[in-house]
């Protein structure tokens, strides 16, 4: 199952918070300092999803050496969220990273950057950022959901990787020529494991039915016959082990509906 995250949602939350903060400062909620750079056009254009105006407006704030640190952080976050919405992932990550360098306590930004890493397919960095967000704010709901989903995804991938290239039997105990051939070939090993798993699944499902067709014993006899025929015919002229295994897998998948 492919894992997806609502990057647009996180970006919208960040922009709303920035606009509220700017409005609060404008109404005298905190002691005012001399404004050296006007950040309002940057925030307004970013919130309006106006790439044409946000670009120069935010650059005027971000590239100005006189910009106060809090305003610089706000402009970076606003532009980063806007870039993320327009699939400019690398640039958005760069803005979020710079904002986090200036203030490493921003849980929302860690979560937003984690979603961007995930969009790029970098799961380890995504998990790291989601974890950082939760370390700052253990109750961050979006980061918790993202971290939980990613942990499950990484666990699933790890489980799959652990058996890649391994057949259903222990290669150390392989004695037959056909078994050694399977162990020596990754594709055949994967096919053998898939055949075994499909047969196990089909037999288990048949056992759970009152009047299964075919029944579990018949299915297992078919599998035993397949293994016996494979062992006997391997190495003979015209015998294609890979095709035989593929045909058996297709037969099993047709039985259990997978």
Can you describe what's shown?
The chain is mostly helical and 258 residues long. It has helices at residues 7-26, 40-47, 51-62, 69-85, 89-102, 107-120, 123-136, 141-163, 177-183, 186-207, 216-233, 241-256. Helix 1 (7-26) packs antiparallel against helix 4 and helix 5 (89-102) runs antiparallel to helix 6 (107-120). The radius of gyration is 29 Å and the shape is elongated. It starts with 6 loop residues before the first helix and ends with a helix. Mean pLDDT is 84; it is low at 4-8 and 23-35.
- β-strand percent reads under 5%
- Estimate the mean pLDDT confidence: 84
The number of distinct helices, counting runs of at least 4 residues, comes to 12
What sequence of helices (H) and strands (E) makes up the elements? HHHHHHHHHHHH
Estimate percent helicity: over 70%
SS-derived structural category: mainly alpha
Q: Give the distance, in angstroms, between the N- and C-terminal Cα atoms.
A: 15 Å
Number of E-state strands: 0
Shape: elongated
Q: What's the main sheet like? A: none
In summary, what is this structure?
The chain has helices spanning 7-26, 40-47, 51-62, 69-85, 89-102, 107-120, 123-136, 141-163, 177-183, 186-207, 216-233, 241-256. With 258 residues, it is an all-alpha fold.
Describe the secondary-structure layout.
Blueprint: H1 7-26, H2 40-47, H3 51-62, H4 69-85, H5 89-102, H6 107-120, H7 123-136, H8 141-163, H9 177-183, H10 186-207, H11 216-233, H12 241-256
Helix pairs in contact: 1-2, 1-4, 1-6, 2-3, 2-4, 3-4, 4-5, 5-6, 6-7, 7-8, 10-11, 10-12
């Amino acid at each position: 199952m492919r894992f997806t995250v609502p990057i647009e949602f996180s970006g919208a939350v960040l922009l709303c918070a920035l606009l509220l903060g700017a409005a609060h400062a404008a109404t005298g909620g905190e002691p005012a300092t001399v404004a050296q750079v006007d950040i309002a056009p940057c925030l307004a254009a970013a919130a309006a999803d106006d790439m044409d105006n946000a670009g120069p407006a935010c650059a005027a704030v971000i590239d100005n050496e006189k910009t106060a640190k809090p305003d610089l952080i706000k402009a970076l976050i606003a532009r980063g969220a806007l870039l993320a919405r327009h699939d400019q992932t690398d640039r958005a990550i760069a803005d979020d990273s710079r904002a986090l360098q200036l203030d490493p306590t921003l849980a929302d930004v860690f979560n937003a950057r984690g979603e961007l890493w995930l969009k790029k397919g970098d799961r380890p960095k995504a998990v790291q950022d989601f974890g950082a967000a939760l370390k700052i704010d253990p109750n961050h709901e979006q980061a918790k959901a993202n971290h939980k989903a990613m942990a499950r995804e990484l666990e699933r991938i790890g489980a799959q990787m652990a058996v890649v290239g391994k057949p259903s039997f222990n290669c150390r105990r392989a004695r037959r020529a056909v078994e050694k051939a399977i162990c020596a070939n990754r594709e055949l090993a994967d096919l053998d494991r898939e055949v075994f798993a499909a047969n196990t699944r089909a037999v288990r499902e048949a056992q759970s039915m009152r009047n299964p067709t075919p029944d579990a014993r018949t299915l297992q006899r078919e599998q035993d016959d397949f293994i016996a025929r494979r062992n006997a015919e391997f190495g003979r002229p015209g015998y294609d082990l890979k095709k035989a295994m593929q045909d058996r897998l297709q037969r099993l998948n047709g039985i259990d509906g997978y």
